[in-house]
Every structure is written in C-alpha cells, then in structure tokens.
Design brief:
170 residues; 9 strands
C-alpha cells in the first residue's frame, strides 16, 4: 500500500545494492502540490497539516461579522459537523500569513486581490478574523490584500470581516 506523508517528498534509490527510502521535508511547495481540494468545501494544506474552509463566512451568510459573531459562526458549523468535522476554529495570524502570497489571483467579494491560492473560493471577505486577542476588548484580523494585521473591538464588524475556519488534519 502506498501512503504519502503530508509535507514530505519520498525519494527512493539503490545505494550499494541496498534499497533506500528517504523522506525529505518540503518547504515552499508549489501551490498545485501543496493544496488539495477535498471536494467537500475544504482545502488541505499538505505543507502545514491544516485543513481550511474553501470559502469563508461571507459566501454562506452574505454579511460581515464581529469577532464574537465569528466564534458563533464557528460554533454553529461545528454543531452542523461541517465537512464531517466538529473541531473547526478561527485561524491565528501566523496561519493566515502562511497561506498568503501577493502573486496569487483570487479576488474578494468587492473585486480586490486577496492573495489566496486558486484552490480557495473567490468572492469572500477582504478581512478575516483571527483567534489572536490584543486585550480584553480587541482582537486581530488579517487584511488579505496587502498582508495587513489590524485589531478592532471584538464587538465590531464594521469592515465586513469574515471567518475562514481551520482545523488540524488528523
């Protein structure tokens, strides 16, 4: 049985009459190798071992959310077992930074470039909430257009901030 290990390239060679297998960690995998559309509204990142929501909350509910509403959205999707899982969460700033690339062509709901790989869905939010809190009243969100980190009041969703849920691949 052949089995691949996410984030690794398998090299097999014959050396001195011995068959050798080597697992080489892959850093900076090409987009077409790194991201896999799972066909169920999710995308797997084989480099990081994370599974992402293919679209975002705006594609489902057509409005922006406050940070508190973002968590409610995630709780609702967990209760529905979105894509068969109930361990979805908000991503961290670092996780969002990890999938962002200014050269990528996807567009937001307003037609602005958002720097996400083409395997993700077009037409979502320009700003995405993260799980990172700044203090009791503020949380961080990520601007996809220019890789911008911002914070706002948790109760405010004035820029149509949305959610792109994430979970660890088991």
């Amino acid at each position: 049985m052949r089995r691949s290990i996410p984030g690794y390239f398998k090299a097999i060679s014959v050396f001195g009459g011995l068959l050798c297998a080597l697992l080489i960690p892959v850093v900076g995998m090409p987009e077409t190798v790194r991201f896999q559309d799972n066909g169920n509204g999710t995308v797997s990142d084989l480099q990081t071992g994370l599974m992402w929501q293919k679209g975002d909350s705006f594609r489902h509910i057509q409005r922006g959310l406050s940070w508190y509403q973002a968590w409610e959205y995630v709780d609702k999707k967990n209760g529905e077992r979105f894509a068969g899982y109930n361990d979805w969460r908000l991503p961290t700033l670092d996780e969002l930074h990890g999938i962002w690339d200014s050269n990528l062509p996807l567009k937001s709901k307003d037609g602005e470039p958002i720097g996400l790989p083409t395997v993700f869905a077009d037409g979502g939010c320009y700003y995405l909430w993260t799980s990172n809190e700044r203090n009791l009243d503020h949380a961080w969100y990520f601007g996809l257009g220019q890789k911008e980190d911002y914070f706002n009041l948790k109760e405010t969703g004035d820029l149509d901030q949305g959610v792109k849920m994430v979970r660890k691949i088991q």
